[in-house]
């Protein structure tokens, strides 16, 4: 007898089908993993279950009874508790205050001490030891997540929904986390967790549902399956790369990164002794699931973030101590950043200003500090024409353009600066097929000109289309390297989820 | 439809000011005055009467410079609430320089005094900029609090080391005759100061339209990440823009001394630094419009007295109206084409979840 049943849930955003007739049934007191790549629809499904999105069609049953979720408070009332990927706590308040926040809406009097005692008892019984009087900002990330879990348990949740719960944890916290989840399951709670990490599925889940492009592609018992099968299901068909015709062989090493180490903003390890090298006239693809150090790697190379240790050189020049400006101007490193809206472009500026964003302080754009608006207009007209940037005029605000046209602005600017090294991060995110093809053809053109290109993407198929070599990144290090023709779904899937390591890069 | 929207966006600030004046007329009516008569008197006195206009111009000069002192940092994404303090320090530096340059030829002395005023204001504001850039301390709080320190430093100076011999009230010696600014309108107090303001407004407009320094400030103000990516030194932009703003406010203080007071007084600025904030927001940070908004605000204030005398309406009503203008203008700045369009089409979009998950963040 299934406890939680999702029956034919579909969710459309405009013409885009984020969920397509998803069926799911979960037994009481079991752990269900929801496995899939980025964009498979896992998070959308969780949001439906939490009342944040209303499904376009389909129904949800708990214990045979149909339920309607119009808001998160409905979900909580039905015993569904959501633990988001990023903890959402008021850091200045104590653990107990955070847990009590929002409870007892009808009365303004809260007996905090009574609550604190109950919380202490509850936390102990679930093996989630924590001092209710501690202020949240003093706690490490793993403990904060415990507070989130206690918060939903305290509201009486029977079903716990966790979105990528281990992504915020340090490696040593993960084992303890898995252990606590087992205690919760054994005490009768039903757990759904979203992940793309195969090792965690194997270690924790009883059943696993694999999703791809908004559809459920497989439901199986974890005991009856193995990581190889799961990774093939997750990635889908084997990716066969079209052999891009080269007009020129790769040359000497242009970009060399040795043993890069860096902590991210949260203080956890983002780059953990990562080494790569790219030759001129070569595209090195960096494959991996989001959040495994890709952003930090790109920013370290381009000088936006400082390394804790390691060395970066471009054509034998050590650029580790260079500023972002020097890396661009002297080392000729071009960068198409992942954060197109906040970093790659100034959305409120006109198109023309964005096309000269990285060169407006130097001739020919500026002379003795005075901008040459004629030159800017000519540059803009030329690039908009050659890169097919569609807009009413160069004076139009960049905010009004489509994602594809915005990306073309970034690409035009970075390529026209004639870089020796070009770092391209998640360049196809949010683009339609036509724009993706355009980006790829420009990158191949640029490779044939002799540029060393680092192509970072979470989309395996896009990497396979352009890359000459593929390195797989997992938890801040390269776990393996392969050639596009060796790229099978299971091999890549295994490397990307850290289930095994390939030959050293 | 779209042209109407664009027009509404383009004219949102004048619309907001008109709405504020309309709301203000309710206040006047509540005080059993006649709004039409009161506004008529106010604007006639402020802009059409010879004496009234001279009074308006006297106030325009510091308000305009103080507005520019807000606009420059604002374009770089910083709020300079410290114009008042920077005016005081500018006045102090100008007076010290002027008193030491007695007998020096005016061609050397006047530029030196003006430079001193600007340096004083710039240093005072750069303090806040440096704390923001290297220590991450909120510039709003620092500039605001530095106001009080500056005001008290001047009070100390003019009631202590700089106090004129035998003065009944805290003020300094008079500055030399030769350094006083020429009068623009004969027999009034309207001095040349407003020329400095207009020149500064023109120069700042030029900097933002035509120079890479201006463009860099705009980039930094609109996106700090993009500025770093563009290779700009964001910390330097912060200090530079605050110091420039401070220099302009300092100039306002210096000109108050050189053009109007001829000596440094205890509490010599009547809150011009704060009026400058209002004038700056009324332009939506466009330096070319600052002369207009400053002139308008100065007119409201100089007309207020006449309105009080002639129509029997309390002058504080004008202060309330200025407050209403601030609220309305601030609200109008939230209008954006895309938002208005979304609002008008509200019917056919349901994809925004009714409850947004918000993230509590703190550093």
Automatic annotation (TrEMBL), chain A:
Chain ranges of the ABC transporter domain: 4-238, 255-500
Top-rank taxon: Bacteria
Pfam family, one: ABC_tran
Xref: PROSITE patterns: ABC_TRANSPORTER_1, ABC_TRANSPORTER_2
Keywords of the record: ATP-binding, Nucleotide-binding
MF (Gene Ontology): ATP binding
The family this protein is said to belong to: Belongs to the ABC transporter superfamily.
Full protein name: Nucleoside ABC transporter ATP-binding protein
Species of the source: Chelatococcus sambhunathii
UniProtKB/TrEMBL annotation, chain B:
Stretches that traverse the bilayer: 57-78, 85-101, 107-128, 140-158, 194-217, 238-257, 277-300, 312-335
Superkingdom of this protein's organism: Bacteria
Primary localization class, coarse: membrane
Membrane topology, from the record: Multi-pass membrane protein
Record key words, sorted: Cell membrane, Membrane, Transmembrane, Transmembrane helix
Locations listed in the record: Cell membrane
Coiled coil: none
Entry protein name: Nucleoside ABC transporter membrane protein
């Amino acid at each position: 007898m299934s406890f939680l049943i999702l029956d034919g849930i579909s969710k459309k955003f405009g013409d885009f089908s984020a969920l397509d007739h998803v069926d799911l049934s979960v037994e009481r007191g079991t752990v269900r993993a929801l496995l899939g790549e980025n964009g498979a629809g896992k998070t959308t499904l969780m949001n439906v279950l939490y009342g944040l999105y209303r499904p376009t069609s389909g129904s949800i049953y708990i214990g045979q009874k149909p339920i309607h979720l119009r808001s998160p408070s409905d979900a909580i009332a039905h015993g569904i508790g959501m633990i988001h990927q990023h903890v959402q706590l008021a850091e200045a308040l104590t653990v107990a205050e955070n847990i009590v926040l929002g409870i007892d809406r009808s009365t303004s009097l809260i007996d905090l001490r009574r609550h604190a005692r109950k919380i202490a008892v509850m936390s102990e019984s679930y093996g989630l030891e924590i001092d209710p009087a501690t202020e949240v900002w003093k706690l490490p990330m793993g403990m904060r997540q415990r507070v989130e879990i206690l918060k939903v348990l305290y509201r009486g949740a029977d079903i716990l929904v966790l979105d990528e719960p281990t992504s915020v944890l340090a490696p040593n916290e993960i084992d303890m986390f898995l252990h606590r989840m087992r205690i919760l399951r054994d005490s009768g709670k039903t757990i759904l967790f979203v992940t793309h990490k195969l090792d965690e599925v194997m270690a924790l889940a009883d059943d696993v549902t694999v999703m791809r492009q908004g559809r459920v592609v497989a439901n199986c018992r974890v005991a009856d399956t193995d990581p190889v099968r799961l990774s093939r299901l997750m990635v889908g068909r084997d990716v066969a790369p079209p052999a891009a015709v080269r007009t020129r062989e790769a040359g000497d090493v242009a970009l060399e990164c040795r043993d890069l180490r860096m902590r991210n903003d949260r203080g956890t390890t983002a780059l953990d002794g990562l080494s790569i090298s790219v030759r001129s006239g070569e595209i090195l693809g960096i494959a991996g699931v989001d959040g495994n150090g890709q952003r930090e790697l790109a920013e370290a190379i381009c000088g936006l973030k400082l390394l804790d240790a390691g060395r970066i050189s471009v054509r034998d020049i050590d650029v580790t101590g260079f500023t972002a400006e020097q890396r661009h101007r002297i080392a000729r490193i071009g960068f198409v950043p992942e954060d197109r809206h906040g970093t790659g472009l100034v959305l409120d500026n006109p198109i023309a200003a964005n096309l000269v964003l990285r060169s407006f302080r130097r001739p020919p754009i500026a002379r003795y500090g005075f901008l040459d608006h004629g030159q800017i207009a000519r540059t803009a007209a030329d690039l908009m024409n050659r890169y097919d940037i569609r807009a009413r005029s160069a004076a139009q605000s960049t905010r009004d353009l489509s994602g594809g046209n915005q990306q073309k602005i970034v690409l035009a600017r970075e390529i026209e600066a004639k870089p020796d090294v070009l770092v391209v991060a998640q360049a196809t995110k949010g683009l339609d097929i036509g724009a993706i093809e355009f980006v790829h053809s420009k990158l191949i053109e640029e490779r044939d000109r002799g540029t060393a290109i680092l192509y970072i993407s979470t989309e395996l198929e896009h990497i396979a289309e352009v890359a000459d070599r593929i390195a797989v990144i997992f938890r801040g290090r390269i776990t393996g390297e392969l050639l596009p023709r060796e790229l099978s779904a299971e091999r890549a899937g295994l490397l990307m989820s850290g289930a095994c390591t390939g030959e050293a890069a | 439809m779209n042209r109407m929207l664009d027009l509404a966006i383009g004219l949102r600030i004048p619309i907001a000011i008109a709405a504020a004046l309309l709301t203000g007329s309710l206040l006047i009516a509540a005080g059993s005055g006649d709004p039409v008569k009161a506004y008529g008197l106010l604007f006639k006195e402020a802009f059409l009467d010879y004496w009234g206009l001279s009074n308006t111009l006297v106030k325009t000069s510091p308000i305009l410079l103080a507005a520019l002192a807000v606009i420059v940092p604002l374009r770089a994404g910083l709020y300079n609430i410290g114009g008042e303090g920077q005016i005081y320090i500018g006045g102090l530096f100008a007076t010290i320089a002027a008193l030491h340059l007695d007998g020096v030829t005016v061609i050397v002395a006047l530029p030196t005094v003006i430079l001193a005023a600007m340096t004083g204001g710039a240093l005072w504001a750069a303090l806040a900029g440096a704390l923001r850039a290297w220590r991450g301390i909120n510039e709003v709080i620092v500039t605001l609090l530095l106001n009080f320190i500056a005001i008290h430093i001047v009070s100390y100076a003019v009631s202590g080391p700089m106090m004129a011999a035998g003065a009944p009230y805290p003020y300094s010696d008079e500055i030399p005759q030769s350094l006083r600014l020429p009068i623009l309108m004969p027999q009034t107090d309207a001095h040349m100061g407003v020329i400095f303001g207009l020149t500064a407004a023109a120069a700042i407009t030029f900097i933002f339209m035509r120079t890479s320094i201006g463009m860099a400030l705009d980039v930094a103000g609109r996106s700090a990440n993009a500025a770093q990516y563009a290779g700009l030194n964001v910390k330097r932009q912060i200090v530079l823009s605050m110091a420039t703003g401070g220099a302009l406010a300092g100039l306002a203080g210096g000109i108050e001394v050189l053009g109007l007071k001829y000596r440094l007084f205890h509490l010599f600025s009547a809150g011009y630094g704060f009026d400058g904030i209002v004038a700056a927001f009324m332009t939506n940070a466009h330096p070319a419009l600052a002369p207009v908004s400053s002139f308008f605000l100065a007119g409201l204030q100089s007309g207020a007295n006449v309105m009080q005398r002639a129509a029997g309406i309390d002058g504080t009503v004008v202060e309330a109206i200025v407050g209403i203008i601030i609220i309305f203008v601030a609200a109008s700045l939230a209008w954006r084409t895309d938002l208005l369009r979304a609002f008008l089409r509200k019917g056919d979009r349901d994809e925004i979840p009714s409850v947004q998950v918000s993230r509590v963040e703190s550093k």
